[in-house]
Write a structure and sequence with these properties.
alpha/beta, Barwin-like endoglucanases, six-stranded mixed β-barrel
């Protein structure tokens, strides 16, 4: 009988140990699941914060671009008279590398470039110039020793004769900074 009681006690102890281990394992599994869910939520919160930050930056940039668009759209105001001359890399002492480091000769088939006084017109500004044939944009990327104040020098690609023929003119200019 003693053996039976000891066997029953041992079986009970094993059963209790198994149940406690199983419950403890379940608790560990639940803790792990909660930790994983917390990590996922933190990742989502971080992603949402990053998205919000990027959205705010994009929204600010959009507003700035929209202001520029409005400036460009309103071509009736903001025009000033500037002295306009022309230059080319064929001039003595000139090369095609601008003051901003851009090789304007390589890019001139895509853009019109000009030299400006950077204290009056910041580099990177779009310079709109009224010609008899329409309004043309130039990108301000260069400067020169003779370019001071309201003076703009237009870059003529490998056209020394054209630059000389252009000469010195007074023209209407609008600066988009």
């Amino acid at each position: 009988m003693k053996r039976i009681i000891i066997s029953l006690l041992l079986i009970s102890l094993i059963a209790i140990s198994f149940i406690c281990g199983w419950l403890g394992g379940k608790e560990a599994t639940m803790n792990w699941a909660i930790e994983e869910q917390t990590k996922i939520e933190e990742k989502h919160i971080n992603s949402l914060q990053e998205f919000t930050k990027n959205y705010n930056e994009l929204y600010t940039e959009f507003n700035e671009l929209y202001k520029k668009y409005i400036e460009l759209k309103d071509l009736s105001s903001g025009w000033e008279t500037y002295k306009i001359t022309a230059y080319t890399s064929l001039d003595n002492g000139c090369d095609s590398i601008s003051a901003t480091g851009i090789n304007i000769e390589d890019l001139s088939r895509h853009f019109n470039f000009c030299a400006v006084d950077p204290e009056i017109i910041p580099y990177g500004s779009v310079v709109l110039i009224k010609f008899d044939t329409g309004i043309f944009p130039f990108l301000a990327v260069d400067c020169g020793g003779a370019i001071n104040g309201k003076h703009i020098d237009l870059y003529f690609v490998n056209d020394l004769d054209g630059a000389f023929q252009f000469g010195n003119r007074e023209m209407e200019v609008k600066i988009i900074k």
